Amino acid sequence: MSDDYKYKLDHFLFPLISNIAKPKILELGVQNGTSTHKFLEICNKNDGQLYSVDVDDCSNVSDNPRWTFMNSRDDNFTHIKKKIPPKLDIIYLDSLHEARHVNKIFYSYFELLNVGGYFFIDDISHLPYIKTEKRNNFYCEINNRETFNEILEIYNQNSDVFELNFSFKSSGLAIIKKTSNNSLRKNTRIQTREISLKNILRSIWKKLKED
After folding, report:
1. Do the beta carbons of residue 13 and residue 173 sit within 8 Å?
2. Is 63 helix (H, G, I), strand (E, B) or coil?
3. What percent of the chain clears pLDDT 90, i.e. is strictly above it?
4. How confident is the model at residue 148, as a pLDDT?
5. Cα gap 211→198, rounded to integer Å
6. How many CB atoms lie within 10 A of CB 20?
7. Which residues is 53 bridged to in the sheet?
8. Helices H, strands E: what count in the chain?
9. pTM higher than 0.70, yes or no?
10. What is the pLDDT of residue 1?
């Protein structure tokens, strides 16, 4: 795991949750356990419990009694919701980084968050993956960009339900803080004036001025 990834977690995620008492944490995506071990540190300090889900068998990542691992898809909602508390303080999504999947996961688990709780979504920045950057990767570029836009669309319909901030360190992180128990409204495409006649004329005018 890259140093940038660890820096992102240490500076933009864990400081926000390190003092939550008796935190109930749902981690979606384990891999080599970098975030898992960090979450468990907080659980050990603050008398918390961590519930992790991954399609791969990551059960050997830790033997901490504060950890429950589920070898499952994170959209196996019936199965997972039977094994986790009815209310959570933290949800961390780092599994399948595709906009439709992120949307499905967010709308299915957000209601479980306590007001004041955090929902973190990893890999929302396409910038490290464009052709001119060292991580040059078509899949990650397109999917991260689509995920970023999806989150903006959700927020645009639900700004009274949660606060939204971003870190663009490494592959990026969406930082969502629940502010209300109101039900989420479905996201819709944001209607911008980017391709309006007015903006086209504005662009032509700017070009003429530059020439």
Report:
1. yes
2. coil
3. 85
4. 98
5. 20
6. 18
7. 28, 70
8. 7, 7
9. yes
10. 53
